[in-house]
Amino acid sequence: MSEATKNQLAEEQAEKAAAAQIADTPAEEQAEKGKSKGKTEENKDVRSGRTAPEEYGPNITIHIPVDKLNPDLTEIPVHINEYSWKIKRGEKQTVPEAVADVLHQAGYL
Length: 109
What we know:
By secondary structure, this protein is an alpha+beta fold. The chain folds into 2 domains: 1-38; 42-109, no CATH class. It contains 3 helices and 4 strands, in the order ααββββα. A hairpin with a 2-residue loop joins strand 2 and strand 3. The radius of gyration is 18 Å and the shape is elongated.
């Protein structure tokens, strides 16, 4: 095996290990890391990790209670244009005002 191929294989393995470590990190720990950088994880697009644009309004804190009839439904997906959020039931979360409006119109808030 050539040296370049070995280096490429080593880089790919390192990327996989880093991704596995992030996947195993509890959400609270990931949120703390995001806060230390001046960013909140709740306000990020779940698919791309991008921060929502300012046109979606200021961030507000919301709480959606757990559904007693459907306790297995723990997340509510919200999609606005090309951005997506997964809102967890039973936890306070910070989201853009536009996301809260969508949840209010849907009867969750």
